[in-house]
């Protein structure tokens, strides 16, 4: 028997972008030392107080079926948080609680695409984006960016790609690049969405990890609240990656339809997890700042470790727990560099090619180990880059 065409074509080339990560895990499992700078997993873990709240909720009986759209208290708290952070009116009925940001992305595309519809996304992209679109029955179409625009989509690129499309998926603050889309970029995105009647799906799971500038949710722009679905998550803001809890915020009517979808797919999120999320959100921005603080420090450590290196450069990173390193002067592709680095130094980073064509010749570094070890790993990475044969010189002033 064969799998459905939808599943068998989810990854047309059979590559989901995580081969290097799996290879590094295999080395670890074989007892070989590996410095893991691959995935966005906090080294601090979930705060004990959040786990205490989860345990207490389970012990008082929140282990049965929970309301599928989410507990009213949690939905209201998310709505209050979104309204406070964006200035955009948000009510409980605008919020659907979902089992993590990835589930929110999939549900948002199911809600806005019919089979065969074209769905736009920006390259570079988080590795799951094209497969998520295909899984929802859409046809993915990339809007390719580059270093010259700091990997942000231009008005011209949007205007060229938008005709005939149904949705546009963006991610700001951005994984893998660490860029924040500024107001001009977001206004261009809003202009394209309104002109071409697109749904905008805005992945904002890194909204609390901002080091320079400010995050602006496109839902707050004129004319965008009625055509935007915002995906959020507790994974990055509160180090709750394994708890699998997040939300989608959008117009009440489509949120109600998405609750019907959840009834037929995930059937909601466990009540004790929702109770822990509510407790965490009630602690306010101070807890979020505590969770994000290590990445602000490590961004500065990376700048120091890579200063003056002629073969590798950290792209300006305004946000997130990642750095994009331009390694083109080494003469290696991102994939070849990552493979060689793992073999020679036991350091695992993600090849830029895992995140699209635009990120070729780069690698992504997750700043997810303690400070001293991170600084040492970056210094070793920089020394390794100096040993690589020189390729075509990169004029960093132009890029």
From TrEMBL:
InterPro entries: Aminotransferase_I/II_large, AspAT/PAT-like, NHTrfase_class1_PyrdxlP-BS, PyrdxlP-dep_Trfase, PyrdxlP-dep_Trfase_major
Domain Aminotransferase class I/classII large residue range list: 35-381
EC supergroup of this enzyme: transferase
EC numbers on record: 2.6.1.-
Cofactor(s), names only, from the UniProt record: pyridoxal 5'-phosphate
Gene Ontology BP terms: amino acid metabolic process
Pfam families, per the entry: Aminotran_1_2
Domain of life the protein comes from: Bacteria
Alphabetical keyword list: Aminotransferase, Pyridoxal phosphate, Pyruvate, Transferase
Keyword presence, Membrane: no
Reactions this protein catalyses: L-aspartate + 2-oxoglutarate = oxaloacetate + L-glutamate
Family as reported in the entry's similarity comment: Belongs to the class-I pyridoxal-phosphate-dependent aminotransferase family.
Protein name: Aminotransferase
